[in-house]
Amino acid sequence: MCVNYITVSRQMAFDWFRTPMELGEDWREEIYRDYQAPFIVHDEQGRRVLKLGSYGFVPQRHRPFQRLTKEEQAKVDLAVAAGKKAPKLKRITMETMNARAEEVGSKVNYKRFWLSQQLCIVPAQKVFEPNWETGIHERWALGLAGEGPFGLPGMWRTWEEEDGTISNAFTHFTLNADEHPLLRRFHRPNEEKRAVAILRPEHYDDWLSSKNPEFARALIELWRPEELNAYPAPKTNLPQKAQPETQPEKTLILTSPMQADLF
Prior knowledge:
GO terms for molecular function: lyase activity; peptidase activity; single-stranded DNA binding. Its EC number is 3.4.-.-. The chain has helices at 10-17, 70-81, 111-115, 204-209, 213-217, 257-260; strands at residues 5-6, 30-31, 36-42, 48-55, 98-100, 119-124, 126-131, 138-144, 150-160, 166-176, 194-196, 228-232. The chain has 263 residues and is an alpha+beta fold. Strands 3, 4, 5, 6, 9, 10 and 11 form a seven-stranded mixed sheet that branches. Strands 2-1-7-8-12 form a five-stranded antiparallel sheet, with no helix packed on it. It is globular. Mean pLDDT is 86; it is low at 237-263.
């Protein structure tokens, strides 16, 4: 699954996704959990509009607190009784940047929004996946063979904050990739291979306007190896603007089925 990706600029959103920019907020180019990033929805007139939301369906500040053991609760009670400030509770760990497309209709965090088809498109230039073929973790980038931005099928929701304001959060869908010649190369050995689904551009508005979960599910797919491009993308200490936008040609890994199947 992908938990880190490069999003698009305002100009790219307009040029590639026909989505005008009315937002005044800024966002980072490289997105991680709980970062603010753009996503695309339909407005009431069926026009594409851009929203800003937190990457991860359940942001950190909205995750439930961990349950305390009896001993831990007793210590908290003693501290409060003594007039001390209660220790800060820890929140449970939840990974909601990706939603498993096969299970989205049955998971408590997603079911209501999937059935109501609260769908979005997450624009991206490339996503990052872990490759373990050498026995150690290597960061790889995955994008389209044509090098252009693409849209991930996603889902969004709103949250009410403590100050009464409303915020947005989103996730995007993954599929099993155990049999995919290229995408099964990622993630740890002996683990299920998951990969991001990508929407066909001709399906963007069908996806955003869908009212039928089964219709929408048919649009969630893994692209063929020859349509994708994957290459090593180690992190650097250079500022993002100083990094090259494309990798040198010699680092590109051809993605034909024969070359991609290294297991």
